Amino acid sequence: MRRLVEDRARHLGFCALRITRPDRVPHLPERLSSWLASGAHGTMEWMEERADQRAQPTTLWPGVRSILVLAMSYRPEQDPLGLLALRGQGAIAAYAQRRDYHEVLKGKLKELGGYLSAKADARVKVFCDTAPVMEKALAEAAGLGWQGKHTVLISREAGNWLLLGAIYTSAEFTPDAPGTDRCGSCRACLDICPTDALPEPYRLDARRCISYLTIEHQGPIPAPLRSAMGNRVFGCDDCLAVCPWNKFARQAAETRLAARDDLAAPDLRLLASLDDAGFRAFFAGTPVKRTGRDRFLRNVLIAIGNSGEPDLAASARVHLADVSPLVRGMAVWACGRLLRAEDLRDLHRRFGEAETDRHVREEWQMALGRGIDSGRAGEWSPSAPHHDTGADT
Asked: What is the residue range of 126's domain?
């Protein structure tokens, strides 16, 4: 039976399939509880919801006897680190330059699950980031790879570039041996992180992670972290791209996961010009669309402010009157980084003096170099949540 399922999985484009059982992750409840208690998940409250089901598969579905963990490669066509030198262009995480993997994987998992159900006369449940399932921990328990010091799954055959899905089934399968940690003394992923989001091996502080900040975080990005974002407008591949195990990664076999050429390094002027309809059209079918125009434009304006190119200030200036305070605030920050003081003061007279949003007023004060009372936007610590404005989701 297993050979039949593996053959079908390869036919569907999966590069690996391993099997574990729900009792093979006994450490997960303690690790998850400790991480959540530290607050390192930031504003991802959904991580706390149904935490018992994340930590114990049988709580999510008492009928599960075996868990099939599957992987699909999305190895990037170019080095993601090379994009960071393109100051006038945006760097989008490699996985997001493609069709939304939820759509691609979910359909293939359902097809494979249906095949397994028919052949084994068993019940199945399919998951791909749509339920409280800890795919990386299960993948390690199944022997698909190991969670590296950056907490991402690493495979000896595919490196860091893996998309994961899981099939819970009532069928009984012999489990595979768990993965073995092969990071050794290497700490490349820890050292390259631009915001120190990996304070120690195997521990991620999402509140400092650029992927979390640019995708999950809804409000203004803490001022002390903006410069370190560089031109990253959606996600961050640094800790993945630097891993030595990537030399073994094979090119993605699934053609629907091929990267779009226009998302490899899009011009910041173009990205800043997108209204809501334009944003939805440009990013249709990709993971970027789910973030929403306001949060994405927040990221783009930070990249413009980090560009060091005064010619890009015009692309920020047009958003000083944007309907979204999240966008207006980051437009102020970008202009403050690129314009001369007298030009900024003129813009403040035109746009800032009538501003009603507290966050945007604080951005103006910081940009103009005036003192701000306690609680100012420039002060931030991981233990204190930053002010949110309720951006589009």
From this structure: 1-86+98-217+238-252
pLDDT digits (tens, 9 = 90+) for 98-130: 999 988 999 999 999 999 999 999 999 999 887
SS3 78: coil
- 351 part of a folded domain: yes
- 157 and 302 together in one domain: no
Rounded to two decimals, the pTM is 0.88
- Residue 224 counted as domain residue: no
Indicate which residue of 52, 129, 322, 373 is catalytic. Answer: 129
40-70: string of b/e by CB count within 10 Å (b at 16+)?
bbbbeeebeeebebbbbbebbbeebebbbbb
Whether residue 73 contacts residue 249, with contact meaning beta carbons closer than 8 Å, is answered with yes
- Number of domains the chain is built from: 2
CATH code, domain carrying 136: 3.40.109
Taking CA atoms, 346 is separated from 140, 285, 312, in Å, by: 57, 41, 18
**Phi, psi angle pair for 68, to nearest 5°:** -95, 120
Q: Is residue 136 domain-shared with residue 276, that is, in the same domain?
A: no
pLDDT digits (tens, 9 = 90+) for 332-377: 999 999 999 999 999 999 999 999 999 999 999 999 985 333 333 3
Respond yes or no: is residue 294 known to be catalytic. Answer: no
